[in-house]
Amino acid sequence: MNLHTLAKSLGVALPLVQMVVGLVALAAFVGLNAVLLVWMERKVAGHFQRRPGPYEVGPWGLLQTVADAVKLVAKQLFTPPGGDRTLFWTAPFTAFLPVFVMLLPLPWSHTLTAFPVNLGLLLILAFAGLNVLALCLAGWGSNNKWALIGAARAVAQSVAYEIPLLLAVLAVVFLTGTLDLGLIVACQGDMPWEWLGASQPLAFVIYVVCAVAETNRAPFDLPEAESELTAGFHTEYSGMGFGLFFLAEYANMIVVSAVATTLFLGGWKGPVLPGPWWFLLKVYALIFLIMWFRWTYPRTRFDQLLNLAWKWLIPLALVNLLATAVLVELA
Amino acid sequence: MTPLQLYQLAALALLALGLFGLVWRRSLVGMLISVELMLNGAGLSIVAAGQLTAADNALAQLATLLVMGLAAAEATLVLAIVLVVVKRFGHGESQDIFELRG
Amino acid sequence: MQCLDSVRKQAKSLWSLVVGLRVTGDNMLRPQITVHYPRRTVESLEGYRGHVQLVGKPGDPAEPRCICCMMCVNSCPSACITVQVKEEAPPPPDPAAAAAPAATAKADAGATDWSERAQVHGGRLIPKTRDGQVPPPEPPAGADKPAGKAPAKAAGKGEDKAGDKPAKKAAKKAPGVWSLDFTLCSLCGTCVAVCPVDSLEYSSNVYLAGRSREAFSGMDLLARLRARAGAAPTSGEVAE
Amino acid sequence: MNQTLAAQLLFALYALVILAGGLAAVLARNLVRAMVGLVMTLFGVAGLYLLLNTPFMAFMQILIYVGAVVVLIFFAIMLTRSPAGGEEAKPRAGRQALLAGLAGLAPAAVLGAALLANPLASATRPAEVELKLLGAHLLTSYVLAFELISVVLFIAMAGAVLLGFTRRKGQ
């Protein structure tokens, strides 16, 4: 059925129908993707350590994550005594729900976008900030010192890394002159040397580093450093409370990788294959890179983490931005 | 009631809540939160006026952007002041901080 | 110049990140080194240090090489080895000499004099070599002194020293009881190291399991040796 | 569904969110809860911005306020070490409530009366301003304000660093 006729028969505006359909599709995608990514992470981890990873449950261990999900759902939901019950249970949803909003404006192909917004990039950046809030609430509501330290770290880290991230993204916006993700892709060509990553390599590197930090992935996973803080901000969460944080982490990985793909790697553009496949391929390649980082680099110390952001990434991003501005002005 | 009046009433509610909170709150951070409420009311009022009347839309949005910038600057400074006060007094509650009295 | 140096240093450290990625990437592409355990097991457990077990004589695998010198008993830091000389062994000149150290060995094992033990240690560890340890009629020269000393102290009797040498010449002492308290054993390997006749080795039994504590508090190593000698050598042996 | 009706319903929803959040922000005994109330209010206002057809303002609102200001407030709450309990939790005198209510309501009453007495003609369908136009304005006619705000931000940051800086021992 055509969306136009559906909208007409329901008597509502087309964008609304589009958005609802998009949201449902994205919800399905996020769920499926989390299962797939957790499996992929384990497999990747296994292969980096020269062991097979999960292989018992289902073909190639594919059902391992499903089994884990069932286990998580079946677990008792426990609220730590002395904690702030309301905030404690608000936090996982605050972490999880914005992800849908962030997935809405992503262009999967030439025509396939859940909700095309002309300020799509800004929308994603704005809602990305909510993740910190969720970590703060989780840490605070848990009434647990490790959780609170994790939350404090998350705040300091995300404040520090949001700046170079925005500056790196800004350089791309300077080049393309738009915040519409679809138009940004349209500015790039099919071949790798026509992508913005080729003309903005420094911005790309800075973006990737900041994205790893913003999604709290190793080697920047200090808010949940298990060797120091038990599990950081989600120490006290059981069952699906933890599950939602988990889902949010993997969905966030998708979002940052998809944004990087859109901004720097030519989005859905590529030879031979149709658009969505290229997009997915690039996104998963980036996610694989992030996992590769995780199994290569040891966790940084906190002062090193902040020094990296304030002393290296921000100045570099500023210089890059300035150079881009000059180039745009000259061209 | 026109839409403009509705928006302005919402903004007014924010202003009233902010003023109330500024008097009611005893800790510096609570006061900061109240001030943010008031600034939000101001922003909303300006944007509503710009969008719903014949006034320049762009000007209104720019003014609100500047208000947001000011709010960020103000929050930074208040954070620093709270830090200093806590260092000196051991807590951030306005009731016991007498030293500024003339 | 200093500025340039620091830039070079940073570039070098950045390059090390790439090297790290390459190392892990290489490892990812290499074949896996783990074994799908329940379906396959590793071929060789040579490096595995299981509980201590006795080594049979070359001719008679059911009989241990052990000469009851008590060095393992005395050097064990956890005092978890109990060795008693077999009663029916060809009698030494003075039957009491053989019986006495055997009787007291167990009681004494828990309360060994520390200074004495240090001597035994020091005297034994140096000359010990892995090869050329076929039990000769006479123990190696280095083993002579402590071998004589340790039982002497353990027995607390002077005549043992006299009875020791003829016992070795005339009839080798064989253990009647050789039990190991595995609940105390720390697997330090000192007993394996000090044994002058290489009668002790690590077992490669990775499936050691039992239902009660008692199964391990007095493991009868002689019985295990006989069981191994009787049965074909298997690795799937379970504690009694 | 009629678009005006939808807009009215959304307005009512956002106004409710704003009021509930604002009340929580002002009255909550626990400062972290007050902060959550503030976040609710900020989202309500962002929703109103969307209704006013200014999505840029809505996203900036979330980006700046929720992403930066609220995080700073959380920092401040953590640093004062009195988020729960402390003076905020003590009961207040009735006189204080009266005065605070007066402080809040008096200006609201005056302004509200003035507002209701003078209904201005208002457009029903606000136009969206193109982002490029905003940028052009910022760099041409309003460049002074733009530069001033950046200077203010810079000075605020420098001042904050200066205030928060503690000399290490032996330096």
Folded structure, characterized:
The complex is a heterotetramer of chains A (331), B (102), C (240) and D (171). Helix content of chain A is 69%, strand content 0%. Chain A contains 15 helices and no strands. Chain A has helices spanning 3-10, 14-48, 64-74, 85-96, 98-103, 120-128, 130-141, 145-176, 181-186, 196-199, 201-214, 226-229, 239-264, 275-294, 302-330. With 102 residues, chain B is mainly α. Chain B has one domain (3-89): Helix Hairpins. Helices cover 78% and strands 0% of the residues of chain B. Chain B contains 3 helices and no strands. In chain B, helix 1 runs antiparallel to helix 2 (28-52) and helix 2 (28-52) packs antiparallel against helix 3. Chain C has 240 residues and is mostly helical. Chain C has a domain at 58-88 and 169-207: Alpha-Beta Plaits. Chain C contains 9 helices and 5 strands, in the order αβαβααααβαβαβα. Chain D has 171 residues and is mainly α. Chain D has a single domain (3-83, 128-170), classed as NADH-ubiquinone/plastoquinone oxidoreductase chain 6, subunit NuoJ (Four Helix Bundle (Hemerythrin (Met), subunit A)), CATH 1.20.120.1200. Chain D is built from 7 helices and no strands. Chain D has helices at residues 3-27, 31-51, 55-80, 86-89, 94-117, 131-139, 143-164. Chain D is globular and about 65 Å long. The model of chain D has no long low-confidence stretch (mean pLDDT 81). The chains are: A mainly alpha (331), B mainly alpha (102), C mainly alpha (240), D mainly alpha (171). Chains in contact: A-C, A-D, B-D. Chains B and D meet through helix 1, helix 2 and helix 3 of B and helix 1, helix 2, helix 3, helix 4 and helix 5 of D.
